[in-house]
Amino acid sequence: MTHAIFIMEPNYEEVLSQPVSELNLSKESICYLERLNTKTLCDFICKGWSYYNESEQADSRCFNEVISFLRERKLLHLMEGL
């Protein structure tokens, strides 16, 4: 697994380090992330696109909800190149 180092504004760090259970996501998406051992948005971003697309537990609706969450907070660019 590749690890990325992000430099960003402090408010982004707070959102990225929040437990997924505390994010404004559907219960289904939170359970999906927890099943895949994704504890924070930072975990989600570090695992990258392919991890979720290639997972046997892939769920496009939940994945897209998290992507929309990142896009709304102008954080989607952090997944570029992963």
- What's the count of strands? 0
Any idea what the shape is?
globular
Chain-averaged pLDDT = 85
Individual helix count: 4
Order of helices and strands: HHHH
The low-pLDDT segments are none
What percent of residues adopt helix (DSSP H or I)?
40-55%
Largest sheet: none
β-sheet strand percentage: under 5%
CA-based gyration radius: 12 Å
Distance between the termini: 11 Å
Q: Determine the structural class based on helices, strands and strand pairing.
A: mainly alpha
Layout: helices, strands, pairs:
Layout lengths: L9 H8 L9 H9 L5 H14 L5 H13 L10
Helix pairs in contact: 2-4
Characterize this entry briefly.
This protein is mainly alpha-helical. Helix content is 54%, strand content 0%.
Task: Explain what you see.
- This protein is mainly α.
- 54% of the residues lie in helices and 0% in strands.
- α2 packs across α4 (60-72).
Descriptive terms for the model:
single chain; 82 residues; mainly alpha
